[in-house]
Amino acid sequence: MDDAGILDRIAELGFVLPPAPKAVASYIPVRVSGNLAFVAGQVPMIDGVVLHPGRLGDPADHVTVDDGAEAARQAALQALSAVREALGSFEPLSGIAQVTVYIASAPGFIEHPAVANGASDLLVDVLGHAGRHARAAVGMSSLPLGASVEVAVTAQLA
Length: 158
Known about the structure:
This protein is an alpha+beta fold. Helices cover 31% and strands 27% of the residues. It has a single domain (3-19, 30-157), classed as CATH 3.30.1330.40.
């Protein structure tokens, strides 16, 4: 894929590609195996602060579905940044194969797909047809750093 074209598309959409995330524990941000790049789960961060921490569906946390979708979108941008850092550019990227969105949620919360759409829609908006992917949206009792969302991506390489 065209590196400059993807960066331009991100800017056209009103987003900024964040700096590539650094590992915060015992793992690497991206593992390339064959024609796949496995991106470690991304907790949405802005300037070192978790975006929309808490659990969806928990009235005490006040995290809305829109907040969760925004967090998922930020995490997907971070995943793209991690891929670009690992590969040196977007040139080797041919598409997104799989996305898993983990959602910290209270019992009874059922709007996981709407939250996960934040990541999915961003990837399609940026990459077009190549951004279409298989997906799982999974509810969790908690996530690292108190995040409301964590996004893991498997990218396909040319």
